[in-house]
Design a protein that fits this description.
This is Bifunctional non-homologous end joining protein LigD. The chain has helices spanning 2-5, 7-11, 117-123, 166-169, 172-175, 186-191; strands at 34-41, 45-53, 56-62, 74-82, 91-93, 101-113, 125-132, 136-143, 152-157, 195-196. With 229 residues, it is of the alpha+beta class. The chain starts with a helix and ends in a 33-residue tail after the last strand.
């Protein structure tokens, strides 16, 4: 079963070259579900947003990164499932490998789904609370109905205690630009040898955050398509 689950993931990688973990399913947890966001400089820079779900990390590539402004609707392209071991990967994916380039652990922590994740995914609206160091409060993933072959979603911040207006949110990603685990910049990681390098650096302690109250306002699903540049 796990082979089929990670067939697409494994076929894209040569594990004799890349230091990324092989695809295998983990234990199915119902509580303390993990999330990770990895800043990835591949063909283009994006943020890989991953949620633990049925022993795998369900993944979306958030092209412009998360925004704390509820007015922003950030395109999140669904990608293949990743193994939970990938949560600890920070380093450089070797040249000529899929996704070649530096990878940073930008944030990590736990997430709490508002309802059964399978039901929410089927409806096309996943609402959840994030408890990380940079990602906090309630968020939504809303599936778009577009003719695109890709599975496009939108990552949207709720109007809760953690939300920011356009002005205060403007420099958020510019300020938060180091690894939450090692404290390194993307340049630091890029200069390191290809491979997983988190184990060579001192990890920083994650500070606990408060859980935001639920936003009971429904999120309207946009009908217009978005073009990825």
């Amino acid at each position: 079963m796990s082979r089929d689950l990670f067939k697409k993931y494994n076929e894209k990688r040569d594990f004799g070259i890349t230091a990324e973990p092989k695809g295998k399913a983990g234990k199915r947890a119902k509580t303390n579900l993990r999330f990770v966001i990895q800043l990835h400089e591949a063909t283009r820079i994006h943020y890989d947003f991953r949620l633990e779900w049925h022993g795998v990390m369900k993944s979306w590539a958030v092209i412009k990164g998360p925004s704390y402004d509820p007015a922003d609707k950030r395109l999140a392209v669904r990608t293949e499932d990743h193994p939970m071991d990938y949560n600890d990967f920070e380093g450089v994916i070797s040249e000529k490998q899929y996704g070649a380039g530096p990878v940073m652990i930008w944030d990590k922590g736990t997430w709490v789904p508002e309802d059964d994740p399978d039901k929410m995914q089927k409806k096309g609206r996943i609402t959840f609370i994030i408890e990380g160091s940079r990602m906090k409060g309630q968020w939504h993933l809303v599936r778009m109905h577009t003719p695109d072959k890709r599975e496009n979603w939108l990552l949207i911040k709720s109007k809760d205690d953690f939300a920011l207006n356009k002005t205060k949110n403007a420099d958020f990603l510019k300020r938060e630009n180091t690894s939450i685990v090692t404290g390194r910049t993307m340049d630091d990681i890029r200069k390191a040898e290809p491979g997983k390098t988190t184990k060579h650096a001192k990890a920083s302690k994650l500070e606990p955050v408060k859980t935001a109250p639920k936003d009971k306002k429904a999120v309207s699903e946009p009908k217009a398509s978005l073009k990825v540049n």
